[in-house]
Design goal:
With about 170 residues, the protein is of the alpha+beta class. It is built from five helices and seven strands; from the N terminus they run H-E-E-E-E-H-E-E-H-H-E-H. The chain has a seven-stranded antiparallel beta sheet with strand order 2-1-5-6-7-4-3, sandwiched between helices.
Amino acid sequence: MALSNYEDVHIYPLDLEDRERLLREQIECTFMWGTRDHWPVGVFMTYIWKDGSFWVSATSQRKRITAIKRDPRVSIAVTSVGTSMGPARTATAKGRAIIHEDRATKDWFYPACAATNIPAPGKFQDAFAAMMESERRLVIEVVPEKWITFDGAKMMAASVESWRASGILD
């Protein structure tokens, strides 16, 4: 089938393996929630992809915590920009947020988050983890329920094939 336009790009999803690779390689996401007056809001956050969930952190006075308690439905968007996968690959998850305040979660999350932000083990990484330890710090788990993905490499391959078939590329 010849490609004539980019009207319908849902036909270029990320393969499951590529989605997993993206989520393991990237360290930053856009975390989105709805405000009390129904405005969508998003912030960039460092995340950890573990056991099929996104894990992020914030302190209890942040507006997103109030919003999550009111309505746990959130979204997380991740792009391949800055990874070895190159640009134009994305994964967006619609999911539900779970707020964790327990010691066991914080004990694994703080060092993992520090290692994500400061890859070289040592005193800076340890200091980062120690700074996360505060009275109001919470860990948020987002459990994906629906995925929206896009693989620009697939779209480009289909484009080149179409251009060759039409004689644009000789």
